[in-house]
C-alpha cells in the first residue's frame, strides 16, 4: 500500500483515533503534484476528491490510490483539452527550444515515431500515448527501443 491508501485506511478504519481529513487531502495533493507538476491541477484534483470521497466504495487495499490516479489523469486531460491555446503553447515551446540553439528535427522520423515524439513534447507520458494508440506501454517502449537501436546502427 502506498501513502494514499495508508491515509485512507487511517481515516476510515480507525474512527476513535480518526486523524483529520487533511491527511487524506494532503496525500492526494502530493500525488497530484508528483504526477502533473501543476499546482492548478493539484488543487482541482483535491477538490474533486473531497467532493466525491463519501461516494467512493473501496473494493480492495489499493482501490483508493487507483481511484485518485484516475481522477488525476482525467483532470489533466480535461485541463489540456479545455486549454484553447494548447497548440499555441506547443508552438511557443518549440520556438523557445529552437531559440536556445537546441533543435529537434522530427521530420526525418517515421510517421509513428513522429506522432509519439510530438505527444511526448506535448506533455503526455508513454502510458497515456500507448492508450491513445491502442497498444500497451510495453509494446510502445519496445518499438521505441528497436527504432533507437536501428538509428544508432545506421548512424555508425
Notes on the protein architecture:
By secondary structure, the protein is mostly helical. The protein folds into two domains: 3-82; 86-155, no CATH class. Helix content is 71%, strand content 0%. α3 (39-52) crosses α4 (63-82). The termini are far apart. Residues 97-101 have low confidence and may be disordered.
Summarize the structure.
The protein is 71% helix and 0% strand. It has 156 residues and is mainly alpha-helical. The protein folds into two domains: 3-82; 86-155, no CATH class.
Which terms summarize this structure?
8 helices, mainly alpha, 71% helix, 2 domains, elongated, 156 residues
Mean pLDDT: 80
- Class inferred from helices and paired strands: mainly alpha
Unreliable spans are 97-101
What's the helix-strand series?
Answer: HHHHHHHH
Compute the number of structural domains: 2
Q: State the major sheet.
A: none
Write the layout of secondary structure elements.
Blueprint: H1 3-12, H2 22-36, H3 39-52, H4 63-82, H5 86-99, H6 111-121, H7 126-133, H8 137-155
Amino acid at each position: 500500500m502506498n501513502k494514499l491508501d495508508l491515509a485512507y485506511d487511517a481515516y476510515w478504519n480507525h474512527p476513535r483515533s480518526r486523524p483529520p481529513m487533511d491527511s487524506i487531502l494532503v496525500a492526494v495533493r502530493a500525488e497530484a503534484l508528483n504526477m502533473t507538476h501543476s499546482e492548478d491541477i493539484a488543487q482541482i484534483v483535491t477538490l474533486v476528491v473531497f467532493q466525491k470521497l463519501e461516494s467512493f466504495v473501496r473494493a480492495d487495499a489499493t482501490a483508493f490510490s487507483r481511484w485518485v490516479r484516475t481522477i488525476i489523469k482525467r483532470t489533466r486531460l480535461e485541463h489540456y483539452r479545455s486549454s484553447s491555446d494548447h497548440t499555441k503553447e506547443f508552438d511557443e515551446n518549440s520556438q523557445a527550444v529552437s531559440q536556445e540553439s537546441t533543435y529537434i528535427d522530427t521530420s526525418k522520423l517515421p510517421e509513428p515515431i513522429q506522432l509519439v515524439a510530438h505527444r511526448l513534447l506535448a506533455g503526455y507520458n508513454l502510458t497515456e500515448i500507448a492508450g491513445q494508440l491502442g497498444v500497451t506501454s510495453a509494446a510502445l517502449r519496445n518499438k521505441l527501443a528497436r527504432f533507437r537501436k536501428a538509428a544508432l546502427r545506421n548512424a555508425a
